[in-house]
Amino acid sequence: MLGWALSRYRARAAGAGLGRIGSMSFRKVLFFGAALVFGLAGTANAQFGLYGMYAGTEVSGVTCLDPQGLCSAANGDVKPFGAAGGVYYDFKTYGPVRLGFDLRADLLHASKSASSRTGGVGAARAHDALGGVRATFHTPVSYLRPYVQASMGWASSDVTEPNVETYDNFLQYQVFAGLDVRVFPILDVRVIELGIGGMDRVGTGLGASSLGVKSISAGIVFHLP
């Protein structure tokens, strides 16, 4: 009888232990499952995208350093153009506004120089890398996505130098406004982007140390659906 009672007690204890382990495991599964769901939900509310554009700019306020004042681009304005692109990450929504970060770069060149007589391909170059914040706006027309953006960063350019490929460093800052039109779930057409800002030289160099910058761009945007 004593042996039979001990065996029943051990069986019940084992069953209770397994029950506690099962209950704890179930709670852990629920906890981690909930964490995963909320994490994925947060990711779904965010949106990652990348874009490529053709950009044209106007850099103004360049000093003509030709001894006779015969620079190939008149009035101190040089107009480099070329490829631009970047990535963005929208992470927070407030009513009709979604906020995010943006990183972009431009590789531009001009066939005329406002600081010398130089002409031809690569007479002036401007490269930049900018980071900033952006806001997109929900509209009654679901496929229209206007946005604004403020960016700042580094630029390397020879637009102020009389010698080609003598690059100066600048702090560049711009405000952009544009419109994306959705054509497919993962593809938008950036029908226009306008930018305005400036460049301030960092370090030594020739010519003007502060320049104005205007830009107009268009391109395509790929993003998560």
Would you mind describing this structure in some detail?
- The chain has one helix at 2-45; strands spanning 47-60, 81-94, 97-112, 119-137, 144-157, 168-184, 187-202, 210-223.
- It is of the alpha+beta class and 225 residues long.
- The protein folds into two domains: 1-45; 47-223, Porin.
- Strands 1-2-3-4-5-6-7-8 form an eight-stranded antiparallel β-barrel.
- A hairpin with a 7-residue loop joins β7 and β8 (210-223).
- The longest helix has 44 residues, at 2-45.
- It starts with a helix and ends with a strand.
Quick structural summary:
With 225 residues, this protein is of the alpha+beta class.
The domain tally reads 2
Q: Biggest sheet: strands, sense, closure?
A: 8 strands, antiparallel, barrel
- Helix fraction bin: 10-25%
Helix and strand sequence: HEEEEEEEE
Q: Beta-strand level of the residues, as a percent range?
A: over 45%
The quaternary structure here is single chain
Structural class of the helix and strand makeup? alpha+beta
The overall pLDDT, averaged over residues, is 84
Q: What is the total tally of β strands? A: 8
List the total number of helices. Answer: 1
Shape: elongated
User: Architecture of the largest domain in CATH?
Assistant: Beta Barrel
